[in-house]
Amino acid sequence: MKHFNIILSFVTLLFLTTAIASKTKHMGYIEATSVGKYKKPGAPVDIAYKTERILAGEESNISIRLIPAVKRGEMRVTFKWDKRLAPAGEVESHYLFTLGKKEYPVNFTVIASSDGIYYIRLIVEIEGKGFRAFAVPVHVGEMSENHKHTLSTKNSQGKNITVMHAQEKIMVSTPDF
After folding, report:
1. Is 172 contained in some domain?
2. What are residue 111's DSSP bridge partners?
3. Low pLDDT (below 70) residues in the chain
């Protein structure tokens, strides 16, 4: 009887763990960074981010790291979310950092009620150095087959490329003589 109770407890625990884990369907992560890439004019700051792909109605954990190239002054960051993407809980839309560290993490959770790709937009201003704009994508729901093919991939040399399908129509006309 003792062994039966242990086995029953184990099966119950396994069932509950599986039920809790299946509540949120984890669909992978999207990670990117601007470190080592082409530097656009503006504030000397890079970004690295990681977003969690989820189903509609679930929460996605967002992890953003701002990496300034300067160590003095102030960095102001303003966040804006797409209309159908909402912060879950209390999330600030403005941050002010006194520079001096290597990087500045900002973590929060967002939620969307319908499938799609939504963007979190950041405007970063470094005192006396200018502005820089970034966009962090949040993928919600299953992606259509068409969109799967437009994602960035790497070519044989390891460079990032974006593959897009195009339709070509060749029209031959004869000149009027």
Report:
1. no
2. 59, 86
3. 1-27, 38, 143-155, 160-177
Provide the sign of the torsion angle of the four alpha carbons 159, 165, 170, 171, taken in this order: negative
Per-residue b or e along 18-52, where b marks 16 or more CB atoms closer than 10 Å to that residue's CB: eeeeeeeeebeebebebeeeeeeeebebbbbbbbb
Indicate yes or no: pTM above 0.85: no
> pLDDT per residue over 46-72, tens digit each?
999 999 988 998 999 999 999 999 999
The answer for residues whose C-beta is within 8 angstroms of residue 175's C-beta and 6 or more apart is none
Q: Tell me if 131 is assigned to some domain.
A: yes
Q: What is the total count of domains within the chain?
A: 1
Q: What is the C-alpha to C-alpha distance for residues 75 and 99, in angstroms, rounded to an integer? A: 7
* Domain CATH code at residue 126: 2.60.40.10
Three-state DSSP state, 14: helix
* Residue numbers of the domain that contains 65: 25-162
What is the rounded CA–CA span in Å between residue 67 and residue 149? 31
Is there a contact between 101 and 87 (Cβ–Cβ < 8 Å)? Answer: no
User: Is 74 in contact with 96 (CB distance < 8 Å)?
Assistant: yes
Do residues 7 and 95 lie in contact, with contact meaning Cβ atoms separated by under 8 Å?
no
CB atoms within 10 A of CB 164: 8
Contact indicator for 85, 121 with CB cutoff of 8 Å: no
